[in-house]
Specification:
The chain is of the alpha+beta class. Helix content is about 40%, strand content about 10%. Strands 1-2 form a two-stranded antiparallel sheet. The relative contact order is 0.22.
Length: about 80
């Protein structure tokens, strides 16, 4: 939760870095963030105080798959001047 969305997003980004460094997988859930900000029932269940909003929802868990390398990328078509 955050008064300022930018601060909340920056905090979520740092939480993602720490989670991944500790072996957790992270998924950003924009759908639930929107629902939490709109639905009075969800706001009440999460005890979100007035004046604060859900900036981002992170879904954390231990992944079943480990990638040995990153995905292949196409060669860039770049012209430096």
């Amino acid at each position: 939760m955050a008064k300022d969305k930018t601060n909340g997003l920056l905090a979520a980004q740092n939480m993602e870095f720490i989670a991944e460094a500790n072996g957790l997988g992270v998924l950003y859930s924009g759908f639930f963030t929107t629902a939490a900000n709109i639905s009075g029932k969800i706001r009440k269940a999460l005890k979100i105080p007035k004046g604060k909003h859900a900036a981002m929802t992170l879904v954390l868990g231990y992944p079943d798959v480990k990638f040995l390398r990153s995905a292949r990328r196409e060669a860039l078509d770049v012209k430096y001047m």
